C-alpha cells in the first residue's frame, strides 16, 4: 500500500509531491476568508413549512447547511468520532490487516485520492471507506479493530441513515417531488468515508481534498469539535464551515443536482489542513445502487423546463466521475442531454 500520511508525517517537512500548483494552493490561511455563514437549520421545530423553506433556500444559495436537534444522540456521535479517531491512530500494519487497499472491495483504505498512482501531486489525507447497506451483509467487511468499531458504527450508520431519509423527505416536499421518489434504489447504497488529516507541516501549500463536488445525493458530514478545515466555494470566495458540536453538515451532491433537474446545485468544496492537530471527519454518502437509473424527476420536467440531464445507471456516472473529477467540464458533458 502507498504509505499512509499518518505513518510518516511526523517530523518531516512537506515533500515536493504534496506542493500544489499556485492556482489551487490555499495560500494564506487563518484570516477569515468570508463573512458569509452556512445556514444552521433546527430540525427540532414544529413548523415543517418553515424548515423546508430554510433547507431549500440554503441548498439553492450555498448547497450546504448544518442541522441541529436532528435526533441522533450526542453520546452516539461522540462514541463514533472516538472510534473513527482510534482507527486512524492504529499502526499502519494493523490498519492494513483490517482493510484492503483494493478500490473494488467493500471496505478499503487509501491515501490522497483514488488516483494516487497517476496523479501529478498528492493530497494530505488518509481515508477508510466502506458500504453500509444491508448491514447484515456489509458489516463482515468492516474493520474488526478497534473492537467497538462494528457495534458503534452500525448504530451510527443506522441513525444517520434515518436522518438522511428525513432530510430527503423535506427536500422532496420543497421541490414538489413525491417523498417516495427517494425511498427506492436511489438511496440504497450508502457509503461511509472516514477521513483523517494529520497535522501538516505547511497548510498554505497543500490541501486535504481539492475543490470537488460529491458524486452523491447528499452527504451528511460529522466534523470534530473546534477544528476548522472544510470550506465551501461561493461567489468566487471560500467560506469556512464552522464546527458546531454535535451538528451535522449536509451538502447537496451532483446526483441530486441531476434528479432536481438543476434546481439544486452540487456544492463545490475543499478541505484545508492545519499544522497543530490531526482532524478526523466522517462522511455518510447517501447513494444509489449501481444499476439504479439517475435522471431528472418526471415531476420537474415539462415543456418549459426540459430535462437538462440524460438518464444513466449510477455505476456509469460514478466510473466517469472517477476518471474525470479533475476535469469537471468533462463530467458535465457526459451527463447533459445533447439538446441542453
Ligand atoms: C468528502 C469531504 C470534508 C471534510 O468526504 O467528500 O468533502 O471536511 N469531506 O472532511
Ligand atoms: Ni466532499
TrEMBL record:
Gene3D superfamilies for the chain: B-lactam Antibiotic, Isopenicillin N Synthase, Chain
Protein name: Fe2OG dioxygenase domain-containing protein
Pfam families found in the cross-reference section: 2OG-FeII_Oxy, DIOX_N
Residues of the Fe2OG dioxygenase domain: 187-288
Keywords assigned by UniProt, alphabetized: Iron, Metal-binding, Oxidoreductase, Vitamin C
InterPro entries, A to Z: DIOX_N, IPNS-like_FE2OG_OXY, IPNS-like_sf, Oxoglu/Fe-dep_dioxygenase_dom, Plant_2OG-oxidoreductases
Species this protein is from: Castanea mollissima
Family: Belongs to the iron/ascorbate-dependent oxidoreductase family.
Example of a GO MF term: metal ion binding
Amino acid at each position: 500500500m502507498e504509505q499512509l500520511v499518518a505513518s510518516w508525517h511526523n517530523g518531516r517537512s512537506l515533500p515536493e509531491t504534496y506542493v500544489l500548483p499556485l492556482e489551487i494552493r490555499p495560500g494564506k490561511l487563518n484570516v477569515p476568508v468570508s463573512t458569509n455563514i452556512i445556514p444552521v437549520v433546527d430540525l427540532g421545530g414544529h413548523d415543517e413549512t418553515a424548515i423546508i423553506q430554510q433547507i431549500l433556500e440554503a441548498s439553492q444559495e450555498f448547497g450546504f447547511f448544518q442541522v441541529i436537534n436532528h435526533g441522533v444522540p450526542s453520546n452516539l456521535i461522540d462514541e463514533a468520532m472516538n472510534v473513527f479517531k482510534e482507527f486512524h491512530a492504529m499502526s499502519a500494519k494493523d490498519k492494513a490487516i483490517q482493510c484492503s487497499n483494493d478500490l473494488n472491495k467493500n471496505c478499503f483504505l487509501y491515501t490522497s485520492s483514488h488516483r494516487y498512482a497517476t496523479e501529478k501531486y498528492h493530497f494530505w489525507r488518509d481515508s477508510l471507506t466502506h458500504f453500509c447497506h444491508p448491514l447484515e451483509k456489509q458489516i463482515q467487511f468492516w474493520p474488526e479493530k478497534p473492537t467497538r468499531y462494528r457495534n458503534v458504527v452500525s448504530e451510527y450508520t443506522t441513525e444517520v441513515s434515518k436522518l438522511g431519509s428525513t432530510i430527503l423527505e423535506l427536500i422532496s416536499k420543497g421541490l414538489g417531488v413525491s417523498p417516495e421518489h427517494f425511498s427506492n434504489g436511489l438511496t440504497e447504497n450508502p457509503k461511509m468515508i472516514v477521513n483523517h488529516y494529520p497535522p501538516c507541516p505547511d497548510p498554505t501549500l497543500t490541501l486535504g481534498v481539492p475543490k470537488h463536488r460529491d458524486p452523491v445525493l447528499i452527504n451528511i458530514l460529522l466534523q470534530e469539535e473546534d477544528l476548522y478545515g472544510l470550506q465551501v466555494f461561493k461567489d468566487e470566495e471560500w467560506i469556512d464551515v464552522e464546527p458546531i458540536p454535535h451538528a451535522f453538515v449536509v451538502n447537496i451532491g451532483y446526483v441530486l443536482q441531476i434528479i432536481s433537474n438543476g434546481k439544486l446545485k452540487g456544492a463545490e468544496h475543499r478541505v484545508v489542513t492545519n499544522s497543530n492537530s490531526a482532524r478526523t471527519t466522517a462522511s455518510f454518502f447517501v447513494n444509489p445502487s449501481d444499476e439504479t437509473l439517475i435522471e431528472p424527476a418526471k415531476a420537474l420536467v415539462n415543456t418549459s423546463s426540459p430535462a437538462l440531464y440524460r438518464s444513466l445507471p449510477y455505476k456509469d456516472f460514478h466510473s466517469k466521475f472517477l476518471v474525470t473529477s479533475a476535469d469537471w467540464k468533462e463530467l458535465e458533458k457526459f451527463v447533459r442531454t445533447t439538446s441542453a
